[in-house]
Amino acid sequence: MAEENKKTTDLIPKEWLYNPVVYSQISGDFSLMQQRVLVGILERLQERIKKGISYQKQLRIWPSLFEDEELNDNIVLEIDPRSLGVIPANYEYLQDALKALMKIQIGFPKKGKTKTRYVVAPLFARAEMPYYKDRKSGKIRIVMLKENVQDFFNLSMGYTIHLAKVAQLCQKKRTPRIYIFLSHCKDQGQKEVDYDDFCKFLGIDEDTARLDMITRLDEQVKKNEITKKERTERIEKWENPYRKFSKVKSLILEPSRKELDDFVRLGEIDFTFTYEPIYDQGRARGNPSKILFSIVKGDLAIDFDKEKKRRESNRYFVEKMVAWCPDMKADDIRFMVEDVAIDDQEDFKAFCYGELRNKVEHKQPDDVANYATALMEEWMKNRRIANGRKSESLFAEQEREESRQRWEKCREDILAKVVKEENRRIFHNLTFESFDFDTKNLVLRTTMDDFRWLEQDEVVKDLLRPNIIKHFGKGANLQYRVFPKSP
Question: Among residues 423, 427, 349, which one has the least CA distance to residue 383?
């Protein structure tokens, strides 16, 4: 990919990842630890993927993630296991997972004329944590085969966006796989998946599961854990535990759906799913021909969509402003619009598209960029002042409402001690007007006749003073606004 590609603003926060659809749908029965490694590889390739996406948006063609000269040798990556959430106490499990990863049958989806099929191919030449003097180096070393790495990280089928730490969150090993698999269709709402392909994706189809089983038995023979005869007997007796949809449903789909449901409720994951088996020719038993997945978005997804839309709108705004005035710097405009409060950004852009350009057209300044920038800064300054006033007004309103509620509670306490109906009427008609938190002046409205009764010593001493102090604090001063008749 050419180095001269223009740098573009990232449209997603760092906790989210861009993932080529091909890589998001690689087939294999991976453990949670192995999935952490697969995501770690993806994280190390983020800058390449972002540049590829930018390149496609500019030239309408998908580039290769790796230059031809890079592919003269295998692709080597180093990953800090701590970035995968793996602590040193679990390095031994990580080492075992890396060894097992080398033996898993992996495939990548490839589009055909009528349907997508899985092509089985090795991706890793090495996956290890080297030992030096009986101590681990603390770095995962991944070596990807130059012959196949382009196929697994092919952007021609597009890309998806998903949370980075999903494999660290989940306890069910197939939940992250299904989540990442479905992330490509979360904006479409539904995805109809060929059932056999879905089983191949999870590595539970008959051929893949059988091959993985034989590989495990061969490893046990090699370690003298079982004999060759025992190996043969186990192969003859073996039956794929996932050969029936009822087992796939109870052991995989339901546990994963429930786990995602819980994470969505907690705000940890952006979506969960429901599913429905689809049968051919009216059948309703056995294995379905397809599964219809429906996406159920949570609050995290809704917030993400809003933020993504805002960032895309701002990027478009920057491009339009630079096209209108090439002397204006894209980074300067980007910093300005991001400095505007989110709720005011659309107003700011409307000003720049309309009134600002009209003023420039009318003024015809020698330096359009500086004049336009000055107008933009003036708008931002005026809006900040207006927002400050609005905040002060809102704060004052909040204080008034809080004070009014205090008075209502104060009056309730007073009325609890008043028996005579006429006296209760006086307090019911006593109306809150204001309370100053600085001076502690409480102002109530009443009539002249009621005021005379309220000013009696026993009313002040027994009813008003103790309850006003209780609800408005020591030092609170009671004042009246008196009207000839009921206000």
Answer: 349
